[in-house]
Write a structure and sequence with these properties.
This protein is an all-beta fold. It contains no helices and ten strands.
Length: about 120
């Protein structure tokens, strides 16, 4: 069955960095566009970034462009999100999703908290 397991979250100060990872299994990962999405308390899910099947095209929500970098390793069925210069407003539960600009949560997600 489809399984997505996110990791790498934590608590950082503003300006800090984190690298999130998503381990995928149960579906043809290398044939799928993949996305990262996030959800903050009291808000709906927000799409963050997407990447094409072979990783050559990326898309970002404007609020993270220039700070976040999405990447993938198809040989290892892994998706990544490098997050630099983190801001308070980046605090959320982050999760990976299958598809382009999708926000359907299948895994447990990983919490990112940006706090001074």
């Amino acid at each position: 069955q489809v399984q997505l397991v996110e990791s790498g979250g934590g608590m950082v100060q503003p300006g800090g960095s984190l690298r999130l990872a998503c381990a995928a299994s149960g579906f043809p990962f290398d044939r799928m566009y993949m996305s990262w999405a996030r959800q903050s308390p009291g808000k709906g899910p927000e799409w963050v970034s997407s990447i094409t099947r072979n990783g050559d095209v990326f898309d970002y929500v404007p609020s993270v462009k220039g700070r976040f970098t999405i990447s993938r390793d198809n040989a290892k069925n892994m998706l990544f999100l490098q997050m630099n210069n983190l801001k308070h407003e980046d605090t959320a539960l982050y999760y990976c999703a299958i598809g382009y600009r999708t926000t359907l949560q299948r895994g447990q997600g990983t919490q990112v908290t940006v706090s001074s």
